[in-house]
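hey can u check if this looks right to u? its 624 residues, i copy pasted from the old doc so theres a chance i mangled smth
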Amino acid sequence: MKKVDFRSAFIKSTLMMLYDIFAVNFSYIFVMLLGGGQQNMSAIWQRALPVTLIFIVLYHAFKIYSSMWEYAGIREVWNVALATVIGGISGIAVDLILSSIGGAASELKNGCFDAYFYVFGTLVAIVLVAGMRVIYRLVRRYYRERSLKKEEKLDRVMIVGAGDMGMIIINELEVNNYAKGKPIIAVDDNPLKVGKRIRGIPVKGTCDQIPELAKKYNINTIILCLPSVDSERQTEILRIAVKTGCKLKTSPSLLEMTDTSQGGRIRDVNITDLLSRPEVELNRDVCSYLKDQVVLVTGGGGSIGSELCRQVSKYHPKKIVVFDIYENSAYLLKQQLDAYHKGNPEIDIRIGSVRDQARLREIFDEFHPSIVFHAAAHKHVPLMEDSPKEAVKNNVFGTFNVASIAVEYNVKRFVNISSDKAVNPANVMGATKRITEMIVQYFERKCKNSTIFAAVRFGNVLGSSGSVIPIFTEQIKNGGPVMVTHPDITRYFMTIPEAAQLVVQAGGLAKGGEIFVLDMGEPVKIVTLAENLIMLSGYKPYTEIEIKFSGLRPGEKLYEELVLDEESSERKMTANNKIFVTKPVDMNDELFEKELEKLKKADENEVRGIIKEIVPNYKEAVID
């Protein structure tokens, strides 16, 4: 004999339907007997079949039997109530029809029962039908939670932010049977909420009390639900929470909530969340220069280049050409963009080097780009100190090649990606980046506005290839130590999307020859970054994971600058208060051409001396 699977949806629906047939009929019989109407039993039995059919049809129409009652909420209960009320009203119509055609119902006054029968019968039916489902939900969750507790100890969660997002996250945890943790307490900056409850979770204090409350209630996971709180306060609260040693998670930001590419509601807090920076607000009108254009991104498969492609793709260009020497990252980028944008804009990948003029000319001849973002470069400071000639070939003459061919093919706009290391450079990489800025201004003068040239200067980008975050993360993963060069070293940091967004907008603001400087906020101590990353990984710095200092590397400065001395007095804010523009430095173009020719012919031993001639403020860093 085949064993019946009582867990199947069909069996469950059938059993629930049989229960509803019983509940509806019992409700009206119970109310009639309670009111002393035993003499009307024949009328009850006569109406039973048509009324029952009406209720079952209504419950199907309101999808009562297709709802997952284990996860049901107010909406499902409301549907039961509404369907039952309509069924009760329909019962009056049934009694009137039966009365008109004769039968037991005709013995009733006006062909109907009294109001007491209909009102209270319907209310009892709502209680019985909805109540059974609520009980089913509670029982299922009780046993599921009990089962989970036996298998593994549930995380004890503190919700930070007793508002709408806090309520959404508590509900999400509940719907997932607390697999991601069980809310124990909540905190909120609003003192009026303290002592109250949010979805049954008590609000025990303010955000400043997070450490003591986490200890008191044995909290091991903290979820920040603060999408509408200003960025400075969010960062402050996050730094308070980091000190608890708890696992830190966060709800989506307002930007993530409107971005359909973001997956999931709750994610781990990462080091970028500790940057005290407001979200970048892009002016879509400024970025309209990209619409229906063919955009070429050199180094398009790299960290900055790939994000530039993603940002550019939002402004409806006709085509994006990704030019890179490394095919794997470029191929993956194309797959991502095609999957997200469904082929509009078209993404084309071409492999080659910016050193190769012939290959560049082939690309320009094939696509005739109207906008060029030049992100291809060697950027690793210590490696370029060991191979200065290669830095010159790629950074200096790669930029010169792309710029000269851009003029030849009447490109509308050329935006070069520079670095804060170009300011008073202490290393070869920074010095070559300063020369690329000079190349941009040289071509702006030479081409007489046929192509608008500009450079964008910004600092370190969190999470980019070769940045400290992946290196520190790997060191923490291996148990430490985390190696920092100097206890006082600081750097400016941006997130990859923020940097790319501002570069795209700077391209729209360019009039010709500008060096745009992105507002990098306050510089961050690298040792503080390391400490925070260790704590976010669930360890205590200096005790569980050691931090050691290795000393400054060749070409490394204790701090970076964003503008030259001669530029600072002329630095002006643009329409975007996150982007500043500096006054071009006077240059002798004829002398610059001769120096570049000399640099091209220099060998490995001569290259630093010639760089010094072109960039007089280039000097080796003094290492203590």
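The first strand starts at residue 156 and ends at 160.
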